[in-house]
Amino acid sequence: MKKSRYLWLLLALMVSMVTRAQGILGTVTDENGEPVIGASVVEKGNPQNGSITDFDGNFNVKVSEGTPIIISYIGFVTQEMKAVRGMKVVLKEDTQTLQDVVVIGYGVQKKSVVTASIAKVSADDLDGTAPVRMDNALKGLAAGVNVTSSSGQPGAASRIRVRGVGTINNSNPLYIVDGMPIEGGLDYINPSDIESIEVLKDAASGAIYGARAANGVILVTTKKGKLGKVSVNYNFSQGWQSAWKHRDVLNATEYAIMRNEALVNAGQAPLYADPYQYGEGTDWQDILFNDNAPVQNHELTISGASEKINYFLSAGYYTQEGIVGGNFDRSNYTRMTLRGNFNLNIFDDSKSRNWLNKLDIDVNLSYARVKSIGVGVNDQYGGLVTTAVALSPILKPYLETEAEQKAQDDYYYKMYPDYYTPMFYEGKQLALPGVDYNEFGNPIADLLAPALPGWSHKFVTNFAATLQLWDGLKFRSSYSADLSFWGNDWYSKVAYYKPTNIVQRSSAGSEADRGQVWQIENILMYDKTFGAHTINVVLGQSAFENSGFNVGASRYNINDYSKPWVNASLGLAADGDRDGWAGPTTKHTMSSLFGRLSYNFDERYMVQATVRRDGSSRFGTNNKYGVFPSFSLGWNVMNEKFLKQTNDWLNNLKVRFSWGKNGNDNIGDFRYTVLTQGGNNYGFGRGGAEQEIVSTKAAGIGNPDIRWEESEQFDFGIDFGFMNNKLTFTVDWFKKKTNGMLMTMAIPSYVGESKPIGNVGDMENSGIEFEAAYKFNIADAKFQIKGNASYLKNKLIKLGNDTGTATYDWVQGGVGNISRAENGQPWPFFWGYKTDGIFQNWNEVNSYTNAEGGLIQPNARPGYVRYVDVNGDGKINDDDKTNIGNGTPDWTFGLTFNAAWKGFDFMMFWQGTAGNEVFDATRRVDIASSNLASWYFGRWTGEGTSNKYPIWVNNDTENWKSSDLYVHDGSYLRLKNIELGYTIPDFITKKAFISRLRLYVAAENLFTFTKYWGFDPEISSGGTSLGIDYGVYPQPRTFRVGLNLSF
Amino acid sequence: MKRNKIYAIGLLALATLTTTSCSDDFLEVTSPSDFPIEEYYTKKEKIEEALVSAYAPLHWFDYGTTSNYNALNLSSDIMSDDMYPNGGNDADCPYLQLAFNYSVTPLTDITGIWLDSYSGVKRANDVIKYVGWATDMSETDKSNVTSQARLLRAFYYNLLWKYYGNIPFFFENLEAPYTTEQLSADEVYAKVIEDLEDIIDHGVLKDEWDDANIGRVTKPMAYMLFTEMVMYQNDQSRYTKALGYMQSLISSGKFGLLSNYADIWTEAGEWSKESIFEINYYSVNGGRAWDNGLGAGGSVNIRLCGPRGFIAKKGDPYEGVVEAGWGFGYIPPKSIHSFEDGDARKDVTGFDIWEHGDAEAMQDCGWMFRDKTPGNYYCNGKYLPLAGGNAGCTGAGDMNFNNNFRVYRYSETLLNAAELMLKTGGNASQAAEYVNQVRNRAGLASLNSVDQDDILNERRHEFMGEGKRYWDLVRTGNAASVLKAANDDLGFRTKDWDSHNKYLPIPQDNIEADPNLKQNPGY
Q1: Tens digit of each residue's pLDDT (9 = 90 or more) over B237-288
Q2: Closest by CA position to A190, among listed A239, A137, A116
Q3: Which of B126, B176, B280 is closest, CB to CB, to A684?
Q4: Residue A1 above 60 pLDDT?
Q5: What's the whole-model pTM score?
Q6: Rounded mean pLDDT of B131-155?
Q7: Residue A676 forms contact with B (CB below 8 Å)
Q8: ipTM value of the model?
Q9: Is the predicted pLDDT of residue A867 greater than 80, yes or no?
Q10: Rounded to 10 degrees, what is the CA torsion of A70, A71, A72, A76?
Q11: Is the bond into A828 cis (omega within 30 degrees of 0)?
């Protein structure tokens, strides 16, 4: 920094020495009054006559007063003025150029000529949402992009779907960070290093990424320095997180009443003589949740630029404690990030010749170190959150008297003499709930168990050289590498935690993985305007390889728990007590050629064609290469003469249309060929002395024709700008059909082998997306409102297997399968019975009959649920299970409101969904002693008491099959972030050499409006489980204070 | 300036280099752990590995590829008059319950036999193909491997043919579109029997294996399979040949009857002189598990067909000897009562649950239970879950009982020979002598002469619970008269067998996936 300034000073001095003789003296400053060093000031029409501003922004040009001069500097709007002695020139930062450019993959494009559907999220947008990971960052900011947090666990990834679920297989979008595809460890990027995120939504924009673009492409561009000034920023925030909601469950008295009632209704004796003696009882959620869990963020960035070098350096440190178990070091996340982005101009002779005249080198270096640990989330089998809701409020977390301690110890010492030892927390002995609660143990005991901490290191570097070959013709060559190292270390301690977790032997294990990805790209770019014709051509080649290695070991019998390592354990390999594994992972390679031609006439008519040919190691022998074309058209109606007169109110009207084909190459490895497989052994030998003989065989039936999944998409969009673009509005309609989804082929089982996978399924998504923004001022106050909304309709056209159906998620205890795929339905949907109220009396039970007069529900009694005989066959069975909702929202929306007045700034970001359902699977129907949501108290207790919730009977599964009783409206509207900042006036901060100091307070998830009674309406744990609540780890409500400091 | 040019040209050169160095090879990626089959199966040692995998489906039947529990005795005897499906209730393994009552449909079929046998066929076909790729095998080596594979394939096809009749048939594995021609049952028979003849005549089948390889198929096993098929087909043209095979086994002196019938079913009785072919099951290091049901190890059929909820009476000789099972495949009291007095096989065949069980203590005794008096309920005494029968297993205890499944015993050789002798108009007294060897061993008096019915009756009692009876009834034309609901004195069977029941339906998914496939008549 210092050096470059010094250099400039020297240069400026040299220049000024030459030109001092005579002329106009003036200064150039930016809008903040900072001198602009190195700006060019030349006489109009005579560029040889000019000067460069010095360290103080001064210049001296040999022209007479009144001569037009041109003042220019990269990153600022060029100004033309008449020369006046002592003139003060204020250059405006050229924000327009930054905002009006869209990154499109292998290049940028002026927004006005973009013909595809691309959502752009800028650094400013991201600042308002304070995301931890870049995949979280997009939530609510881009139309057509649905982001669902998987949980509130620190560092948790999100599920991202661009324009719907494209396939029953992997629907994750492709991430390209500074030109490099990133497949794992997306959190290595500090979101505040991001300059912009572009989501390539339609096939036309994605086609440049060919075989990987079918589920959308997310382009991330990191920041660069800005010319002219060295900027040093330090950001700090400290937050406190808490659960924003507790589930409303029965208290001890209500619990005892319900248990008694259930038993009596089942013909058994009540359990609790006097329910009222228990009062409120234990609130297990209070025991579990870690309120005011801290989260802290530090960021330091230094950036700047000169004509020769542009740099952006950042360091970040983020640490977060989870609201479930964070206080036990069981749900924690720490990340350190380092980044250096450089652009170096090696030489620039573009003024003196027009061939081989400019060489630039871009370098991005980044490193991230992450340590994370998590508790099980969304887990019906004893997940902590589920446990806190399910444990009886009559139970106590700690044993309070010596008698209680003795009773528990005596019992467990007798039952589990080798494993049981009393556990203590904060000096209190933990009470164990006992066998009645199956997987639900004392959550504190679970949290005291050793855990599985993960670690990772990731380095990503990009080097690129751009050589200007000829006027408008550039060649760019790049090499990128991504080195990752990750793993985890675990151990277990001999202990009795709960009936389903009795650790009988200690063991230690470690696993370490390494992955390396490299990518080489060579691109030829041509960009030229001839009169009204502008042409842009990109031709390129790309190759990448992704490989890895995995090594691990495990061993029984830890010698001493202070050294919980494989090396410090005692198990012997000969006893099968020591195991190890190591080997490379399957490589993934890809080699591609691509080209794009963009043409526009007078910025009125635009046309763009893209084609990419990808060869992939994953593709079958008969389809090694795929070609992915796209085509798009645009018409800037506004630039037509006949619309000129509307300019005062309508100033932008663009119509876009695009079509294209993209591929999804996430199809697994070697599915086209047949490899060997072991483990189909047979024992030979005489009775009692048989020996297992090792065998191998063909692993399956290959399908040499297997190919990528392909999506074909149409998009039609219109962009509007009103009132000098103060109000903008964009609407896009799309229809996307995925063809050839991979599924086990419906071939006869007599082939005698597991059936091959084939491109046999089809899926369709269609939708409409809106984006609008409005900027306005009232007196000194500036306001901006930006919003987006998208509507999505998904349909599985053909699953491609024998039956056209598949069942997925399962709930324990007679509930059974709850999600399903079926041709013609959204994928997936909640699968269960429809209910039609409660039988109020015997008369109603007996009159619910089929055509033959038989009872449709012969097992029913008054108070039982009336199931709808959907197929009308006169009985209730699996065939009556139907679509009772699904977790995919119809509508997704986001709304940002900004206001600024004097030093104050205010921001609100709302985000939500509508039309999605939640399947509440948090109650373990098979565990009779588990606690209940308080709405169970509204159960049927006699004629007319309830027409929704059935009679409460112990071990009743009849009324608790998968049905719409479990399905709730999951729509929500959430104030994701609200922030109020104040920038200390610079006349105060200047004294401390501080150019800007902003203080702020903020809150995340301050309000959530939802009808869903659970912890969080936002639920996803991967696969098909969107919207299925097994006890989700809620997102915390966070209050933050912070500061932004600039020098 | 000059230097810049050099930089620029150097960069261009580098770029060109990197561009051109990427070729098709770059996209060829190999698996880090497995091998392409064409490269792998070129050596004898590796082809032997593939051959072992063709044996593996033999031990799957008792579990089935998808826990169908289609052991070769259980899945066929339930269709005879000598076995009930039982289990926990009338929906426990419903295909077994339905097959018992001749009510299976294409959707509720016994599918384990289908899936396992076709897996065997597929693997055997592969082995035969791989032998053609071998570079280090002598013609004898090749014939040795190929003969075993072909014989195994014939064994699997025999099952498919008997159970399902008109089946898709192929000697070379299927490629896209993965369908093949369906043959009539007679055509299947013709193909398989010709192949068997060729293996027997030209193959290098061993008469016996050394101890380490016991369990592999042999020439005697081929003779038994050939005879079984010929007799099931009632193929008079091959009776003489089959009889010749039987007599060569008898005259070889390598086989004989154990003096004590009960000894056959002990571990020591495995691969005894009476044994011609068995499916090996073992418990020591048996790795079969619920998540590895096709793994090598013991048998689950033993637990499956053990007495449900069994608790021995205090002081009973079976206390601590017989463990409880899941109560499938009981033998009807009527069948046990049909043994002649003094038949030593009676008590071995029927384990009288109420004679040994503690009626007070036993709670869940399963479906089809009536009253708890001795002489009323029997489970299959030949394959009892004995305490320690699964000792030493590393997988699931329930799945690793060490009882080999007896496929062909020497007593069947004798009874086959007797029957064929009658059918070919041979020496009737020799036939009676063969039958009397079997009778005498069971402690029964000799018969002066035997007819077809005597032999059938002898077979019933000799092989009760071994999966022979149903096929005997079908091939002798007695099925329709014997397998009547009225003949089930406990009244569980409500439907009569009719001729369409000779074949089970072809499992529905095959019909859907192969439009040319015709369902068996009557379904």
Answers
A1: 999 999 999 999 999 999 999 999 999 999 999 999 999 999 999 999 898 9
A2: A137
A3: B280
A4: no
A5: 0.86
A6: 96
A7: yes
A8: 0.92
A9: yes
A10: -120
A11: yes
- Which residue from A707, A736, A703, A737 is spatially nearest to A626, judged by alpha carbons? A707
Q: Pick B27's closest partner by Cβ from A467, A617, A697.
A: A617
CB contact under 8 A, A680 and B56: yes
Beta carbons of B24 and A747 less than 8 Å apart: no
Residues of A in contact with B214 (CB under 8 A): 684-686
Whether chain B has a CB inside 8 Å of the CB on A359: the answer is yes
Q: Looking at beta carbons, which residues of chain B come within 8 Å of A588?
A: 29
**Residue A698 tokens, joined:** 């063909």
DSSP string covering A512-579, please? EEEEEEEEEEEEEEEEEEETTEEEEEEEEEEEEEEEEEEEEEEEE-BS-TTS-SGGGB---GGGT-EE
- Please tell me which residue of chain A has the smallest CA distance to B182: A750
- B355-359 mean pLDDT: 91
Which residue from A815, A824, A822 is spatially nearest to A959, judged by alpha carbons?
A: A815
Those of residues 792-811 in A touching chain B at CB distance below 8 A are 802
Find the angle CA(A607)-CA(A612)-CA(A613) to the nearest 5 degrees.
150
Q: Which of B7, B216, B284 sits opposite A684 (nearest CB)?
A: B216
Residues B4, A347: C-beta atoms closer than 8 Å: yes
Q: B299-351 pLDDT, tens per residue?
A: 999 999 999 989 999 999 999 999 999 999 999 999 999 999 999 999 999 99
Distance of alpha carbon A570 from alpha carbon A158, whole angstroms: 41
Burial B459-475 (b: 16+ CB within 10 A, else e): bbbbbbbbbbbbbbbbb
- Rounded Cα gap, residues B243 and B430, in angstroms: 12
Closest CA to B374 of B353, B397, B404: B353
CB A462 within 8 Å of CB A362: yes
CB B106 within 8 A of CB B506: yes
- Residues B258 and B253: their CA atoms lie apart, in Å, by 13
Partner-chain contact A681 B32, CB within 8 Å: no
Looking at chain A, the whole-number percentage of residues with pLDDT higher than 90 is: 71
* Residue A11 pLDDT grade (very low, low, confident, very high; cuts 50, 70, 90): very low
Reduce the DSSP state of residue A291 to 3 states and report it. coil
CB atoms within 10 A of CB A723: 14
Tell whether A591 lies on the interface with B, counting CB pairs under 8 A. yes
Return d(Cα A859, Cα A844) in angstroms, integer: 13
Identify from B509, B512, B517, B520 which residue to disrupt to test chain A contact, counting A C-beta atoms within 10 A and taking the largest count.
B509
Separation between Cα atoms, residue A847 and residue B431, nearest integer Å: 70
Site of tokens 């922030």: A979
Q: Is B138 exposed, middle or buried (0-12, 13-18, 19+ CB in 10 A)?
A: exposed
- A904-935 burial, b if ≥16 CB within 10 A, otherwise e? ebbbbbbbbbbbbbbbbbbbbbebebbbbbee
CA–CA distance, B293 with A678 (Å, rounded to integer):
15
pLDDT at B14: 55
* Average pLDDT of chain A, as a whole number: 91
Using left for φ > 0, alpha for ψ between -120 and 50, and beta otherwise, residue A285 falls in alpha
Size of interface A-B (CB pairs under 8 A): 225
- Per-residue pLDDT for A554 more than 90? yes
Interchain contact A524–B (C-beta under 8 A): no
Tokens of A293: 């869990």
Shortest alpha-carbon distance between residue A1038 and chain B (Å)? 44
